[in-house]
Amino acid sequence: MVPNEQRGRILTIYVLVYGLFFGIGQLFSQNLNVTGPGFLLIAGISTTLALVPMVAIDVRAPVLPRRVTLEIVKALRTSPVSVTACLLNGSF
Questions:
Q1: What was the pLDDT predicted at 47?
Q2: φ, ψ for residue 86 (rounded to 5)?
Q3: How far does CA 30 lie from the centroid of its chain?
Q4: Could you tell me the pTM of the whole model?
Q5: DSSP per residue over 15-82, as a string?
Q6: 50 vs 1, 18, 21, 65, 84, CA distance in Å?
Q7: pLDDT at 91
Q8: Which residue ranges of the chain lie beneath pLDDT 50?
């Protein structure tokens, strides 16, 4: 949904906000009593607030790519080390 010219800027803002809230969460958790109901309440509120941006944005389903055939022999000729690593890793 973001134009190509602004993807870096949006990614930077996302990482900054993520890091900020990650740090704030660490600071809040120092004095939190995990045996009381406050921990469950904060977890529920945080989860609900995290869902708000996902629900608020209208995102359409992506267009499915066309079907591609897997040509292992051609890939093996092009990059034998990569194909061997994928086969050993179980990625195929």
A1: 85
A2: -65, -40
A3: 26
A4: 0.46
A5: HHHHHHHHHHHHHHHTT--TTSHHHHHHHHHHHHHHHHHHHHS--PPPPPPPP----HHHHHHH-HHH
A6: 20, 11, 11, 30, 41
A7: 64
A8: none
